[in-house]
Amino acid sequence: MTERLISALEPTPPRESVVTIGTFDGLHRGHQHLISQVLARAAAVDREAIVITFVPHPRSVLHPELPVAYLTSTEERLSRLRTAGFNRVIALEFTPELAAMRAEDFVDHISAGLCMRELWIGHDFRLGAGQQGDAAHLAQYGERLGYQLHVIEALMDGGAPINSTRIRELVLAGQVADAARLLGRPYTIGGTVIQGRHVGRTLGVRTANIACDPERVIPTNGVYAAWALVKGERRMAALNIGIRPSFGESERLLEAHLLGYDGDVYNAQLELQLIQYLRPELVFESREALIEQIHQDIALTRQMLGTDDKGIEPWLT
Question: What's the pLDDT tens digit per position in 181-195?
Fold first, then answer.
């Protein structure tokens, strides 16, 4: 494990560094608050800005019996960190061996391997076996290893701290507008468009279907107004999440009608930025009632989204 860790930290940067560590699931406004200060500090003192994150999420290794649902995929998380402005993004494989490493040993390695002179963490950050490496211990290690610890207090919203757990709960409850406020951007889900049963075509409304990713936080079943990004185009979308109970189905799908889009989307990557929950998933007594409701959903989606750019928001502010 020690050799693998040292290998991940090589080659040694030519300059001293300012480092932050975390899982950063969601990269929400609280994370952005920390990251902005790390980047500003590194620039001010002419040091490397480095972020260390873990793949997979530590909880999936520490508690494999419990399902872990992510706000961001690994690819999205790393991509956002790379575009944030860091000189280096280090994704360490989180293994049982790494989980068993003492906090002091881990910090010793990164301090030497990265020429670390400052370590920036969130207020609730813990590191190492038994989560012993809290702020007090990390400050003590810094006195010996020659780095300064900076602890950033939680960013508050509505009298409560912004954190990934709070955002997961909002998304699961379908409160995607509130989740977007804490994220600093719309909550995004998506995947590869698959072949469906072409039910939408029989109703006069084509849809793009995506199987729900079991590792992502999926909102409660219902209809949402969303922005869809597909093949370089951006379209309004009326999105249904659920099992289509009117057709007696059981597989949970993301089913998006892209307003004004007639192109072929099978096997394409579709990204959906959820803006507003519209209504719960319903069972309809007739085909006519379902069609009428679908058109109402489309009209409400168009009214909700208008022509503004709600789906395009900077993630780092």
Answer: 999 999 999 999 998
Quote the domain boundaries for residue 16. Answer: 2-157
**Would residue 261 count as lying in a domain?**
yes
CB pairs under 8 A, 24+ apart, for 3-11? 4/93, 5/92, 5/98, 5/101, 5/106, 5/109, 6/109, 6/113, 8/90, 8/92, 9/90, 9/109, 9/110, 9/113, 9/114, 10/113
Integer angstrom CA distances of residue 244 from 107, 240, 288: 51, 9, 15
Please report the DSSP string for 149-172 in residue order: EEEEPPPEETTEE--HHHHHHHHH
Residues 82 and 79: their CA atoms lie apart, in Å, by: 5
Question: Phi and psi of 178, rounded to 5°?
Answer: -70, -40
- Give the residue from 136, 157, 178 where a domain finishes: 157
- What is the per-residue pLDDT across 78-121, written as a single tens digit (0 to 9) for each? 999 999 999 999 999 999 999 999 999 999 999 999 999 999 99
